[in-house]
Amino acid sequence: MSDTKSRAHSVNLWSLVALIIGSTVGAGIFSLPQNIASVAAPGAMLIGWVIAGVGMLSVAFVFQILAHRKPHLDSGVYAYVRAGLGDFIGFAAGWGYWLGSVVAQVGYATLFFNTVGHYVPIFSADHQWTSAIAVSLLSWAIFAVLARGVRQASVMNFITTAAKLLPILAFIVLTAFVGFTWDKFTLDFWGDSTGLTVMQQVQGIMLFTVWVFIGVEGASVYSANARIRADVSRATIIGFFSVLVLLVAVSTLSYGVLTQEELANLPDNSMASVLEAVVGPWGGAFISFGLCLSVLGAYVSWQMLCAEPIVMMSVDELLPRAVGKTNAAGAPWVAQLISTATIQLFIIIFYLNETSYLVMVQLATIMYLLPYIFSALYLLLLAVRGQGLAHPHAGTKFDLSGPEVGAGENRRHLYIGVIAFIYSLWLIYAANPVYVLLGALAVLPGLLPYVGTRLAKKEKVFNAFEWFIVALVIVGSIAGLWGLKTGALTL
């Protein structure tokens, strides 16, 4: 008994910090200089990072607080949304998180082959279909491996984490001491030449800042295994600010090497191009190698993990039970097959339309926002009324009680929930409307298996609040399709 207990509480402070950094620092940081410069000057960039820092830290604390207040909810981040706002809202959040991961997979692979294409011309932008075929083969090969129950080894996690951090740290040191010039950084500091106001520029970078922070809630997932419960809060703060320093340093130093216009015209792996401008071709090759190894390792992990939301929803009977079916090796092969087939569908759609990595990032981020905004709303409901909304299932209680919370602590939770909720709403407002409407369109197909599952179980499908959300999804989907058809909306 004591041995089991010691293993269950074996994750120390620095392991939790490593989990946050490892899960948050991914492919996004390598394309950050170009992404930020495409919409903002240095002054607006710094304001944007202040807003993102406060907002994303509040989001991280939302998940940590919910993990403490509702320790029995262990079906992923969507479980909080389901418990607080009902089955359909929980389903929509889980479905959105799943599709966001699918779109992100295509984005990761696109960035990988675009980087390889700089050195191997057959994968360059002039050979889109070569890259599309390569991405498809990679996805199906990984599916074949995952279907056998093989999991990424810890040594691979260490290698890919080192592959991410070493080039980033080298980039920061070299650009800071060799390439950075104050005159270039302050040139058109507020972006007067862009014709955009400072707040328009800040608005433009918001989704990019969320994209590079995905995974910051990682410590809360392991809170039950923490050696000391207070380490979860400490790890969240240490890990968050460590990541924030890396992100701000990369984006800030880049403006001191190249002008905003030069940065905006760089390829997707823009960090490599910036370092190449500082130390020559070897710098770009060094960053590119780190990016490729990092993305390739992460691609395997995320293809495995992106099936988890639909597996969990199948276990919770929001999707047909067959979706969560496992094989003799213990792998959820049906969910993996569905996810890989969906990745293949998006590969075809994106490459037929010559969709850029930038577009994939923004669409994926909108989908990830669903569990963020609804989880913040659940925390607000807990702080104000002590429970979530009623579920369609009469007599079934999902919002189970947790540890007692004092008045002062509850008030602190309320403040954090308010900040996270307002920040999440601001992100929706700041996004290009086309991504919001395409997000609604992406949720729409999920209605078919969800409603079918409900009817098969002879259960009430929607309550009044859920009908309202369904109506918004349908109206948004129609508006998105009409806008794309008429040209009123463009990617």
UniProtKB/TrEMBL annotation:
A GO molecular-function annotation: transmembrane transporter activity
Membrane topology (UniProt): Multi-pass membrane protein
Listed Pfam families: AA_permease_2
GO cellular component entries: plasma membrane
Domain of life: Bacteria
InterPro entries in the record: AA/rel_permease1 (IPR002293), Amino_acid_antiprt (IPR004754), APC_superfamily (IPR050367)
Entry's transmembrane regions: 12-32, 44-67, 88-109, 129-150, 162-182, 202-224, 236-258, 278-302, 333-352, 358-381, 413-429, 435-452, 464-484
Keywords attached to this entry: Amino-acid transport, Cell membrane, Membrane, Transmembrane, Transmembrane helix, Transport
Cell compartments where the protein resides: Cell membrane
Major localisation: membrane
GO BP annotations, alphabetical order: amino acid transport
Record-stated family: Belongs to the amino acid-polyamine-organocation (APC) superfamily. Basic amino acid/polyamine antiporter (APA) (TC 2.A.3.2) family.
Name of protein: Lysine transporter
Organism name: Corynebacterium phocae
Organism classification: Bacteria, Bacillati, Actinomycetota, Actinomycetes, Mycobacteriales
